[in-house]
Design goal:
Structural class: alpha/beta
Number of domains: 2
CATH class of the largest domain: Alpha Beta
Helix content: 25-40%
Strand content: 25-35%
Order of helices and strands: EHEHEHEHEHEEHEHEEHEEE
Shape: elongated
CATH architecture of the largest domain: 2-Layer Sandwich
Strand order of the largest sheet: 3-2-4-1-5
Oligomer: single chain
CATH superfamily of the largest domain: Tetrapyrrole methylase, C-terminal domain
Length: 244
């Protein structure tokens, strides 16, 4: 019997991977992941068995990883950011929990999720309570996503959106902003980042009204400020109430 490392590789650049993540990848003999994430590892994949699938191949990928581990391989299932935040950790545990594959040791190795790496580029937008929502309706019905946006918007917490829009969902960010505008002013400080830690890295601070009509994609993470979020020296900052 082998084992599985669930490795969060952060944004993708080596400097933002934890030493434990790098060590786990070196210790394994098989790397399983979305093909784009495997490419980000560069020379770390040398002399490894590589198993990849495209988008929507998550279950297939996880079953292959479990099968490899059941056969004695030390397997690293890599995910961008953190494997426990919209990653493969939950699905691996669900599949192993069926009892079909035996008792395979699993270790979750955390990574820097997009909410944190993007926030660092913008300034300090997550200094107080915040909530994270994926706008992808591939696994969650859009109606449920809208309810979550509505309740979070009313809470005045900072909001973070993963997967804001795609070719197949060109209007999800606009629809989300329209829901938020029912509870927050159009001048609310917002920001977005793209390709954190990769080629083409960029970020911008904007307003909720402007964000509504901004064209973004799946490589972007979006930040919606609350009433305590301001712009200080060109940085998006959510104040905590200290007497400054």
């Amino acid at each position: 019997m082998g084992n599985i490392f669930l490795v969060g590789i952060g944004p993708g650049d080596r400097e933002n991977m934890t030493p434990r993540a790098v060590s786990a990848i070196r210790e394994c003999d098989t790397i399983v992941g979305y093909e784009t994430y495997i490419r980000l590892l560069g020379d770390m994949t040398e002399k490894k068995t590589l198993i990849s699938t495209g988008m929507t191949g998550e279950k297939e990928r996880c079953i292959k990883a479990i099968t490899q581990a059941a056969g004695g391989s030390r397997v690293a299932v890599i995910c961008s950011g953190d494997s426990g935040v919209y990653g493969m950790a939950g699905l691996i545990y669900e599949l192993i929990g069926t009892g079909e594959y035996g008792d395979i040791p699993v270790e979750v190795i955390p990574g820097i999720t997009a909410a944190n790496s993007g926030a660092a580029l913008l300034g300090a937008p997550l200094m107080n309570d915040f909530g994270v929502i994926s706008l992808s309706d591939q696994l969650i019905p859009w109606e449920r996503i809208c309810q979550r946006i509505k309740h979070l918007a009313a809470s005045d917490m900072v909001m973070v959106f993963y997967n804001p829009m795609s070719r197949h969902r060109p209007d999800t960010l606009r629809k989300a902003c329209d829901i938020i505008l029912e509870a927050r002013d159009e001048g609310t400080v917002c920001g977005w980042v793209k390709n954190v830690g990769r080629d083409g890295q960029t970020s911008q601070i904007t307003t909720l009204g402007q964000l509504r009509d901004t064209e973004l994609d799946m490589l972007c993470t979006v930040y919606i400020g609350g009433t305590d979020t301001v712009v200080l020296d060109g940085k998006m900052v959510t104040t905590r109430g200290y007497d400054v």
